[in-house]
Design a protein that fits this description.
single chain; alpha/beta; five-stranded mixed sheet; globular
């Protein structure tokens, strides 16, 4: 196996590619790709222009016609058409590639790193493993819902909403001075890739809608500082690489008093779209940070309209929310049960299994929490005693606010909702999930900072 740099003009799109079968020429292969994969070709070309690079080296072999591409035909075809739009089979496609190339902020790559193989049988084995399915584990295994969820949660890539770009529009309305091209958008999206991280800066993403959960002025003060840190290079990719580094950075902002706290929380979240259109104007007077002595106005005290009926939940743990549980060895079984409850088990079909796993999840999470905070005297205690100890510890450290105090009281009085005795008696009936308190018990690494 050899990797080498080759000029794009020296590469030949395979006219006998398995995607389309034998064609008479490279031009015919272009025409087939643009006719049969038009949307994919457009998006790939736009991505190459935006990135200024191709991320995966094509697989090539030297033959009489030149360097024949055996894997990566679409990538090479896109580069050739961007570099020489006149190669496109129609005037419409020529205009498309010419306009993309003319608008490129950086040069279109004219050279490409390629993987070179001369053994035809080896090339076929590589293609077999890449493109014919998982083959019972021999080939590439496609990501399931859990894997895709984990990737989006870790990186912020692949989500339906480009969070950083939407946030930037709110800053521009307030006169933020930096242009968009100065802001590392990918790093900003990575930092805010999980709901728990977004909540800390006063944002929430539900059903592809980004909203302020706290007064926009307080949230934008935090966001402005984050964008400044990223733009100046004070915070780089390594500082937002994983959940631990993100939490460390957000904790630093919190210690400086830059993150919105509970006094800025809104009774009803405001979508960024509504705020930009002006329906959030009632909150503009609150963009200055309020003193502790401030009290709600009469309008703020009046009850809002009744919220719409929530959509029926399919899973016990909402599948459209990123909870950002730590990916540590001791959390392996907890995460496996969590994933089953969030993605695999349906309330309409698996209610008995859900009820039992819910109880097991809480018990394992409580044990994990007590171990993390050093409360080892409860190792042989009943799970009810462990739960009380964990909740008492969270109250003493301020990890649980007054909103959850009622839940703690119900547990201590052995009432239902979070009662160990009631859960043991009725493992096979539907249980109410309190996802945020449950996450706080399971996510001890972030709670105990």
């Amino acid at each position: 196996m050899t990797y080498a740099i080759r000029a794009v003009d020296d590469l030949v799109v395979n006219r006998d590619n398995d995607r389309h079968g034998p064609m008479e020429s490279e031009a015919a292969a272009f025409a087939w790709l643009l006719a049969k994969k038009a949307d994919h070709m457009k998006r790939l070309a736009a991505d190459i222009v935006a990135a200024g690079k191709v991320y995966e080296p094509p697989l090539i072999r030297q033959e009489e016609e030149g360097w024949i591409v055996y894997d990566g035909n679409r990538r090479v075809a896109s580069l050739k058409l961007l570099l020489r739009p006149g190669l496109a089979p129609t005037s419409e496609w020529t205009r498309f590639y010419q306009q993309l190339a003319d608008g490129a902020a950086q040069p279109i790559p004219s050279e490409l790193e390629c993987r070179i193989e001369q053994d035809g049988e080896l090339i076929d084995e590589i293609l077999y493993r890449r493109h014919t399915g998982s083959q019972n584990g021999v080939g590439q295994s496609q990501w399931d819902a859990t894997a895709k969820h984990n990737f989006v949660e870790r990186t912020g890539k692949g989500g339906a909403v480009n969070i950083a770009r939407e946030i930037f529009s709110t800053l521009k309305r307030d006169g933020y001075p930096r242009p968009l091209h100065q802001i590392p958008i990918s790093n900003a999206n990575r930092l805010l890739s999980a709901e728990s991280q977004r909540n800390r800066v006063g944002l929430s993403l539900r059903k592809n809608t980004l909203s302020f959960t706290h007064e926009p002025g307080a949230a934008m003060r935090a966001i402005s500082r984050i964008f400044d840190d990223l733009s100046s290079g004070h915070i780089v990719l390594a500082d937002v690489w994983d959940a631990e580094s993100k939490t460390k950075y957000l904790n630093k902002l919190d210690a400086e008093g830059l993150l919105p706290n509970v006094k800025f929380a809104l009774k009803t979240p405001i979508t960024i779209e509504d705020w930009l259109l002006g329906s959030g104007e009632a909150d503009e007077d609150d963009q200055e940070i309020r003193d502790e002595s401030d009290t709600p106005s009469q309008d703020e005290s009046e009850s809002a309209e009744d919220p719409p009926e929530p959509q029926k939940r399919l899973n016990l743990i909402p599948s459209d929310v990123h909870f950002n549980l730590p990916k540590t060895p001791e959390m392996t079984r907890i995460r496996a049960i969590w994933d089953d409850l969030q993605f695999n088990l349906r309330l309409s079909k698996h209610i008995n299994a859900i009820s039992v796993l819910h109880r097991v999840l809480i018990e394992l999470s409580v044990t994990h929490y007590l171990n993390k905070v050093g409360e080892t005297t409860y190792s042989n205690a009943s799970w009810s005693e462990k739960m009380k100890a964990a909740l008492n510890h969270q109250m003493s450290t301020g990890a649980i606010d007054s909103e959850y105090e009622k839940i703690v009281r119900r547990f201590q009085r052995s009432e239902e909702v979070l009662s160990s005795s009631s859960m043991i008696r009725s493992q096979c009936r539907p249980l109410t999930i309190w996802t945020t308190p449950l996450q706080r018990v399971g996510h001890a690494a972030e709670v105990h900072h």
